[in-house]
Write a structure and sequence with these properties.
- The protein is an alpha+beta fold.
- 47% of the residues lie in helices and 11% in strands.
- It is built from 18 helices and eleven strands.
- A seven-stranded mixed sheet has the order 3-4-5-2-1-8-9. Strands 6-7 form a two-stranded antiparallel ribbon.
- α6 packs across α8, α11 crosses α12 and α12 crosses α14.
- The longest helix is centred in the last third of the chain and has 16 residues.
- The termini are far apart.
Length: 378
């Protein structure tokens, strides 16, 4: 915050207005440490660049310049207003303006439409401070217009309700219900990012209740998935757990999320979680073959009380690379060439070691293998 204040003072000395704006102001008023600090100014981008020695053009077409000062990077954006949003995602045009209020009135919610001077005075033209005190999420101006401009704001409103443990303003919630179908115009990457954030918060169940009540999920890919009872949901700090909870409760497999463009790693983690959750009992192979993260999610889904790290630490080996022999050894012992048989026997040896039936020692493995292999040939 000290760096932002320095930037504001520099801009004011140069004859411009400048303020801290957005989420940083909200967080400070809530007694929280802001994650990011943004500055809005009456200076045009080229004017900002003339004031500061070190800048980066991060979004100059939209008026944003990154100012590098005291080892920090602060985004400084020119006061602006926005044109029509014909695609319900982004403005067709951006126009720079010279007054703070014109800039603030284009923002999404009153709690994000406040500004702060370098002396910590709050500028609040839309009642955001009262809404913070009343724990209320309310759109700036006409709610339907705000959601028509950027339909993702509907999900953001719902996400903020869980993140801050706030209620949605009646008019704002009514507009979400009315404009719900517009969410289908938003890219699935942006939708997933909001849902990921939603799953992280302690009051995520509140948000997901709003999602269901507004029927917003009905306009998302495979949206019926979200129609599960979220009241028992407890955030873990891992957004994947939200997806796992939904799939497990609804009886879906990972293919139900095909249109959400999960990474291969995310899909594998979820598949492993659902697999572990489906098992009545967990044995040594479960702890060996499934990662800690997936097991922890599965344990929470099924109310298992188990010390997963300890169980894993007691295994004879942690992964296949620790097996004391390899395929070359088996070919040497048998005189056979490489083929499907090799993978099968390495897998048998690996399982025997994991289950404690075979010590992980080359000589012992060779002796065991030769007996087992000859018996099979008979």
């Amino acid at each position: 915050m000290d760096t932002a204040k320095k930037i504001i003072l520099e801009l004011k000395t140069a004859g411009f207005e400048a303020y801290v704006v957005g989420g940083a102001v909200r967080d400070l008023l809530l007694g929280r440490v802001p994650h990011d600090t943004d500055v809005a100014t009456s200076a045009l981008p080229e004017e900002v660049k003339r004031v500061f020695e070190r800048t980066v053009d991060t979004g100059i077409a939209h008026g944003t310049v990154l100012v590098l000062l005291d080892g920090e990077g602060i985004e400084v954006t020119t006061f602006r207003t926005e044109g029509a949003y014909t695609d319900h995602r982004r403005p067709d045009e951006v126009a720079f303006v010279r007054t703070l209020e014109e800039d603030l009135k284009r923002r999404d919610f009153t709690i994000n439409a406040m500004a702060m001077t370098e002396t910590m005075d709050i500028i609040d033209p839309f009642g955001g401070r009262i809404d913070l005190e009343d724990k209320r999420i309310r759109a700036v101006g006409n709610s339907s217009e705000r959601f028509s401009e950027d339909a993702l704001r509907m999900l953001r409103a719902i996400r903020f309700s869980g993140q801050l443990d706030f209620a949605l303003d009646d008019e704002t919630f009514a507009a979400i219900k009315q404009e719900a179908s517009l969410i289908s115009s938003i890219s699935i990457e942006r939708v997933k990012a909001e849902l990921d954030k939603m799953f992280l918060h302690e009051q995520a169940a509140r948000s997901l209740g709003y999602l269901q009540e507004a029927k917003l999920n009905e306009h998302l890919p495979n949206g019926k998935m979200f129609d599960v009872d979220w009241t028992a949901y407890e955030a873990t700090g891992n957004s994947l757990y939200g997806w796992a909870f939904m799939l497990h409760r609804g009886g879906f497999d990972v293919s139900a999320l095909r249109l959400y463009k999960l990474s291969n790693d995310e899909k594998q983690q979820l598949a492993n979680t659902l697999c572990a959750a489906s098992l009545e009992t967990w044995n040594a192979w479960t702890y060996y073959s499934i990662g800690t993260e997936a097991l922890e999610m599965a344990a929470k889904l099924t109310d298992r009380q188990v010390a997963i790290p300890k169980k894993k630490s007691l295994l004879p080996i942690a992964h296949k690379q620790e097996v004391a022999i390899n395929g070359k050894d088996l070919m040497e012992w048998t005189g056979k060439k490489q083929g499907p048989w090799l993978k099968d026997w390495i897998s048998r040896i690996e399982r025997a070691i994991v289950f404690g039936e075979l010590p992980n020692d080359p000589a012992t493995i060779k002796e065991w293998f030769q007996v087992e292999f000859s018996t099979q040939d008979e």
